[in-house]
From TrEMBL:
It comes from Hydrogenophaga aromaticivorans. GO terms for molecular function: isomerase activity. InterPro entries: ClpP/crotonase-like_dom_sf, Enoyl-CoA_hydra/iso. It holds the Pfam family ECH_1. Keywords: Isomerase. GO terms for biological process: fatty acid beta-oxidation. This is Enoyl-CoA hydratase/isomerase family protein. The keyword Isomerase applies.
Amino acid sequence: MIQTSPVEISRAGAVGIIELARPEKFNCLSMSVHAAIEAAIDGFEKSDSGVRAILIRAQGKHFCTGADLDEVKSLRGDPARLKHFISYGHSVLKRLERSDLPVVAACQGLTLAGGCELMLACDIIFAAKDARFGDQHAQFGLIPGWGGSQRMPRIAGLRRGLDLFFSARWIDAAIAEQWGLVNYVVEPEQLGEAALAYCSKIATRSRIGMATMKRLARQGMEGSSEVGLQLEEDLASAALLDDDVSEGLAAFEARRTPVFKA
């Protein structure tokens, strides 16, 4: 029997690509999938990797329908291993959320439960027009275990988040866009090209600048605006001394496109 990887890692210029590769299981998330995602992030984040943006996409008809329930069932007799299954997934999605690199997800078909939690940990979301999103944990007596209970209400709002949790209903891409869960809705056949084009565009930006803006935005959401504003003041002052700013200003004066090295 040929063993294939549950995740395929590749590059397209300065874009690092993480592709879920279990279409026969609707790209469900397992320990091995999380390990592959973590390893990919580690590799892409290295300063000499040349990667400036990450794209997460999936093979087959669906982005991801949740956790690998076969693996969950096999662990239920061992509380310690089951706890590790949850905590490891938690740490990987937190790692993704806090990556210095911008992370873009391209979602087609169904993005449900753990798949929705993976999507929520990303920065920018592209969705096919016929994509659907939802959280079905309550339908089966489960609760979100990989950050969904915290990220969903923060992004979509408390009542909308609770509605999705309680009802276990699916919403379409248009509603997901209205709720702020999705940034761009495109025709299904254009999803891959549109998401990669976006990643390629932002990959021309200053890596340090994007990392700083991501840090400011995410930390600001977690604390008070006063703390966030002070952090912005401090980091913006320091950034003005950076080589990327020198290149940006020189490019502006010369009316050319900047070429950032960092």
